[in-house]
Amino acid sequence: MSTATLTSPGHVPASAGGPRFTLPKFGMLVFLASEAMLFAGLIGGYIVLRLAQGPGNWPPPGAPEIGVRLPPTFLNWVMIVNTAILLSSSLTFHWGEVRMRKGGSGLIGYSLTALLGAVFLGVQAWEWHHLKGEGMWFDSFGTYGSCFFTMTGFHGLHVFLGLLGVLWVAARAGLRQMKLFSGQTPNPSHTFEELTGYYWHFVDVVWIFLYSILYVL
Amino acid sequence: MSTITASHVAESHGHEEATGWKKYIWSLDHKIIGIQYLFTSLGFLLVGGALALLLRWQLAYPSTQVMPNGDVGNPISLPFINPQFYNALFTMHATVMVFLVVMPLLIGAFGNYLIPLKIGTGDMAFPLINELSYWFFLASGLIMLAGFFVAGGAAAGGWTSYAPLSTVAAYNGTKMGQTLWAAGIFINGLASIMGAFNYITTIVNMRAPGLGFFRLPLTVWALFITAFLLLLAVPVLSAAGAMLILDLNFGTSFFNPAKGGQPLLWQHLFWFFGHPEVYIMILPAMGMASDVLSIFSRKPIFGYKAMVFAMIAIGFLGFIVWGHHMFVSGMNLVLSAAFGVSTMVIAVPSAIKTFNWLGTIWGGSIRFTTAMLNALAFVAMFVIGGFSGIFMASTPVNIFVHHTYFIVAHFHYVLFGGSIFAIFASIYTWYPKMFGRMLDETLGKIHFALTFVFFNLCFFPMHNVGLGGMMRRIADPTAYEHLRSLQPINQFITLSAIGLGFSQLIFFWNFFRSLKQGRPAGKNPWQATTLEWTVDSPPGHGNFAVTPTVYHGPYEYSLPGHPRDFVMQNEPPAPDAGPGSPVRRPVHAG
Q: Residue A59 and residue A3: Cα distance in Å, rounded?
């Protein structure tokens, strides 16, 4: 979809000095404020439910331990590495954007981002499967199970939507690379890449919060 | 002003004008989307009103009443209304009115229609998202109403859906209806969020040259602030709704105390959304009523900046008062005192607005059009509803009246007396712009008079039955000894409600008849100043042939030394005054 159908024309803004953000970028930032409140609601609920259990009952007796322990367990290491994978995917995306702005295609950066995002989702699916094998699911161990699966599920859904965007970005970068090879001028619009970038970085930042309260604190 | 040509539209707005029936399905034009919202929510208004009349009939003539001769059921009762169905009736009445009538009328219909026109631009920032928002809204309404046709019936746990009533199928009796309700709320929330970031982006970035923030009509300011409330409050309800669906269907235990959950968590999440929601439903009404009062008093808004800052204050305070809905939840008394005080603080900006409305009409040459009558009714009824709100902010009073009809009276005075009268005022004011024809003033005044009288006859006595001890959400008042003496009042309320309901048929008749037979409106039937009145009625696709330049504030009425009693916002200034010259104050007679 071209940006022309997404947005109205760039009207002259009322303020002098030109727009700091294009309309789609501005809109995306405002939308992300709303997304932040969605996770704020979930995190607020988690804090209430966890404190209500009282000290020593979180995780409840018999539930699999997911919190980081010293020395770290195998599952701890898996999620530490997975967190690093998701965070580094923000760096690779940024790298792709820098290359793209300098006239390249950014294909390598964007493809790496898609790969890392997919690996993150795969590892999380493995973790869900592993925990389910140990008897922990949405409906077991009370609010402990409910919170963990709902919050990581909501986040995973966001990563999945972001991943679709990144895949599309990577496809666009591939097209751009082909045009560069054949000496044509690539599509000068970077709007879709920039919007996907905002969303992807946001989803990463949310994970930092979720990882902190679900696994570390 | 030249007519807008198709070629101009194509090159400047990124989307073509749709024609014929396609116009009403695929059009990305904000005006068509606004009209889609208008017709759809007026349709839902009929549904919500019918639900109200059914539940009122049950309260006056209960199907379970034990008659003096020992028969069960009042002879003129509706036998299909059993207590479970009664619960579904009031739950869905509130849900429909809040989510499918008042919000979409104020924000979906008038927000969409008026924002681009009033800020002098061709469309919203994201027309496609705008249209998606409408379809999500329509789907959410159909999903919620589909509850009436599933096993167990529609959601019956109240529009607040308190846990564990809502989260345990054995309690609410309709797992499917409750799930559809929550799914509908979630989808409705998506529609609201799409609208909210669209409005904010549009208002910040697409104002016409010269249209600074403090030259925006109050309608636009109100919708701007409302959009922030939607943006930040609605996602919290979405999170809660998702938890509710999971609790009902997937065995999670967020709100289930048997498994360590917290029923009170639902109340906090719900009212964190729910109180800003109250202002979501009144702020746009305040903004539009301000414009109507100024137009028909032929005077500038009294204290324009105070009005803006009062709305900002109301919007901010709205986020820190949600606990006043929960005074009887066993809340810590110190906390309830804090919530009580923060709630009463809202009376300050509300009073600023009320006195400024009075200041606006004071000494004006008032034109008593139907729109003006409705706007005046808005102010008066909002004051009554606002006052009873202050009573309830006080914890001791609240504990006495909580869950009685006093509360029902209060919020109907704000929501019907406030929002709906402002909506009528807005429809009478902007209908000529939307459809190019005037509504009939005689029918309009009859409709207004009947609505105003029946509204007060219907809702004022609810204060009395509430203080008399009548509880909300009971299917049969005659089952309670202490309420039997109130039954004649309940019957009186029901008859008034029927009068109120049938008075609206006059409005619908006027609305549809005037589409074809109304007097042609012309560009500016009310001699108003803002940008939407500079273009044809209805405006062409793309609104403005040339982007207007704004030289004036939105309320320059009755300026001394001016040939007319109003100055259009885009009228170039007189040679002696530059565009930056301060707004000249009118001198009012007397």
A: 48
Tell me whether B333 touches chain A (CB under 8 Å): no
Q: Give the residue on B whose Cα is nearest the Cα of A29.
A: B197
Domains defined along chain A, listed by start: 22-52+72-216 (1.20.120.80)
Q: Which domains does chain B have, with CATH numbers?
A: 6-534 (1.20.210.10)
Cα separation, B519 vs B444, in Å, equals 14
Rounded (10°) angle between helices A191-211 and A107-133: 30
Question: How far apart are alpha carbons B60 and B490 in whole angstroms?
Answer: 5
pLDDT for the residue numbered B279? 96
Q: Could you give the CA distance from residue B62 to residue A99 in angstroms, rounded to a whole number?
A: 74
CB pair distance less than 8 Å for A49 and B260: yes
- Using DSSP, state whether B72 is helix, strand or coil: strand
Gap from B512 CA to chain A (nearest CA, Å): 32
Residues of chain B contacting residue A39, judged by C-beta atoms under 8 Å apart: 239
pTM above 0.90, yes or no: yes
Which residues numbered 213-272 in B keep a CB inside 8 Å of some CB on A? Answer: 231-240, 242-243, 246-247, 250-254, 259-262, 265, 268-269, 272
Residues of B whose CB is below 8 A from A142? 253, 259-261
- Structure token pair of residue B229: 């409330």
* Contact present, B199 and B227 (Cβ < 8 Å): yes
Are B232 and B276 contacting, i.e. CB atoms less than 8 angstroms apart?
A: yes
Q: Which residues of chain B have pLDDT under 50?
A: 1-12, 578-590
- Residue among B141, B145, B144, B143 nearest B108 (CA): B141
The DSSP letter of residue B303 is T
- How many other C-beta atoms can be found within 10 angstroms of the C-beta atom of residue B304? 23
Q: Which residues of B touch A138 (CB under 8 A)?
A: 246, 250-252
Q: What is the per-residue pLDDT across B89-107, written as a single tens digit (0 to 9) for each?
A: 999 999 999 999 999 999 9
Which residue from B193, B208, B262 is facing A34, i.e. has the nearest CB?
B193
A41 inside 8 A of chain B by CB: yes
Q: Which residues of B565-577 are buried (b: 16+ CB within 10 A; e: fewer)?
A: ebbbbbbeeeeee
Most distant pair of Cα atoms in chain B: their distance: 86
Residue type, A189: S
Whether omega before B538 lies within 30 degrees of 0, making that bond cis, reads yes
Interface test with A, best of B12, B197, B322 (most A CBs within 10 A): B197
B201/A26 touch (CB, cutoff 8 Å), yes or no: yes
Report whether B120 contacts B26 (CB < 8 A): no
pLDDT at A18 over 90: no
d(CA A168, CA B192): 27
- For residue range A37-90, what is the model confidence (pLDDT) as tens digits? 999 999 999 999 999 998 888 899 899 988 898 899 999 999 999 999 999 999
Residue A45, chain B, CB below 8 Å: the answer is yes
Helix/strand/coil (H, E, C) string of A156-199?
Answer: HHHHHHHHHHHHHHHHHHHHHHHHHHCCCCCCCCCHHHHHHHHH
Q: Are B555 and B304 in contact (CB under 8 A)?
A: yes
Helix (H, G, I), strand (E, B) or coil at A45: helix
